[in-house]
Amino acid sequence: MQTKILLDEGEMPKRWYNIQADLPRPLDPPLHPATGNVVTPDDLRHIFPMELIRQEMSTERYIDIPDEVRDILTLWRPSPLYRARRLEAALKTPAKIYFKWEGVSPPGSHKPNTAIPQAYYNREAGIERLATETGAGQWGSSLAFATGLFDMECTVYMVRTSYDQKPYRKSMMQVYGAECIPSPSPRTRSGRMMLERDPDTPGSLGIAISEAVEDAASHDNTNYALGSVLNHVCLHQTIIGQEAKQQLAAVDDYPDVVIGCVGGGSNFAGLSFPFAGEKITGKRPDTEIIAVEPAACPTLTKGLYAYDYGDVAGLTPIMKMFTLGHDFVPPAIHAGGLRYHGASPLVSRLAQDGVIRSVSCYQNEVFEAAVTFARTEGTVVAPEAAHAVKAAIDVALQCRETGEAKTILFNNSGHGNFDFSSYEAYFAGMLIDYEYPVELIKESLARLPVTG
Ligand SMILES: *Cc1c(COP(=O)(O)O)cnc(C)c1O
């Protein structure tokens, strides 16, 4: 029996899959944060290059990957698909567990899959610097890696709690040539406002996004780059699911269950959209697709499907998505990449339409699953990816009860080699199983800019 299913470089997908082509109804358009009017390409020009704006709004089913981008992606792609045989044996499950391993990229996660094309299109448009936010540091180091390859500068606003918890991510950005600043920072108006309100704030992705957008909008040579949420980011990640489909076909298999963790939704989208497309169009109507999120930041499981800002200061377009309210500051859990108040509009629509379903889990059970995984499969996964591991184990254990030999596919979105302080906290019994109080979510939602 095979452990790894590998593709040749020549078999790497040549196009991204755009699920907008297969939605039964078009997405609700993003609205301008100041006027409430539908956003036009012109509104986005001061922070994004035209090609990415085009991709954001495109309903073409496939979009070609530029040769220069494909060439860089071969540094680590196609990524391996693993059959987790030792985990299956430990769980005594009749299920087959496969995982796509995205930790093989140089920064260690799926995020360079979009960082490379984003840096490429910005450089093609003559942009010299990119400003961005980062949660756990995975996105910041991915964009730092990408901008370095294209001789561009990079400024990263890193959420304060992660900046303190994961100092080596900051060092990695420095090695790649980027500048990393803890957020909120005194460098921007939005940052100064937040610091005034609460000098000890742990920060959040929503605040860091406000800072990066403000930086980009106020400098002509600088654009903004977002590591998740937006349609073009989900698009770039679909290389994961397309590869996985080819790899499973090579062993004559197809998933009954597809699982990914959701922060903004990009790695989940990347693995699941090619399968969700076949579900929507009726080719494979029975695939179960599960999004996993932390109980401390339960966007899809407890949020509202409504128009909301993508950031705290209200500088980004207003998007129709599942949200906990744009000023929601989630507790400082160790899966920093999952601390976002919203979720990708595309993932949100699929959740609203019942194409996918969502579950949430607590920190301790997530790390317990990650330790089981490390002790069977060897890899120490990122705290974010551990959420997908936990859900995959749960499905496999249900299969043990029912005797079903389901095929489970999950996205192992990154390694945890910089996250050992989180594992230490788990072993020391110091992880808190936060469940965010529903009343606070309601308060936050009451401050939504518009409803409908
Ligand atoms: C950033 C990150 C996530 C969460 O972001 P998504 O856009 O939801 O994928 C998940 N896993 C890892 C390893 C990450 O770095």
Task: Characterise this structure.
The N and C termini lie far apart (about 50 Å). Strands 1-4-5-15-10-11-14 form a seven-stranded mixed beta sheet, sandwiched between helices. A four-stranded parallel beta sheet has the order 8-7-6-9, sandwiched between helices. With about 450 residues, it is an alpha/beta fold. The radius of gyration is 20 Å and the shape is globular. About 40% of the residues lie in helices and about 15% in strands. The protein has helices spanning about 40-45, 50-55, 65-75, 85-90, 110-125, 140-150, 160-165, 165-175, 190-195, 205-215, 230-235, 240-250, 265-280, 300, 345-350, 365-375, 385-400, 420-425, 440-445, and strands at about 5, 15, 60-65, 80-85, 95-100, 130-135, 155-160, 180-185, 220-225, 255-260, 290-295, 305-310, 320-325, 355-360, 405-410. The protein has a domain at about 65-110 and about 235-445: Rossmann fold. The mean pLDDT is about 95. Bound molecules: pyridoxal-5'-phosphate. Pyridoxal-5'-phosphate binds near residues 262, 263, 265, 267 and 414.
Write the layout of secondary structure elements.
Blueprint: E1 4-5, E2 15-17, H1 41-44, H2 50-57, E3 62-64, H3 67-73, E4 81-83, H4 85-91, E5 96-101, H5 112-124, E6 129-134, H6 138-149, E7 153-159, H7 160-165, H8 167-176, E8 179-183, H9 189-197, H10 205-217, E9 222-224, H11 231-237, H12 239-250, E10 257-261, H13 266-280, E11 288-294, H14 299-302, E12 304-309, E13 318-323, H15 345-352, E14 357-361, H16 363-377, H17 383-402, E15 407-412, H18 420-427, H19 438-446
Parallel strand pairs: 5-15, 6-7, 6-9, 7-8, 10-11, 10-15, 11-14
Antiparallel strand pairs: 1-4, 2-3, 4-5, 12-13
Helix pairs in contact: 2-11, 3-5, 4-16, 5-6, 6-8, 9-10, 11-13, 12-13, 16-17
The structure holds pyridoxal-5'-phosphate.
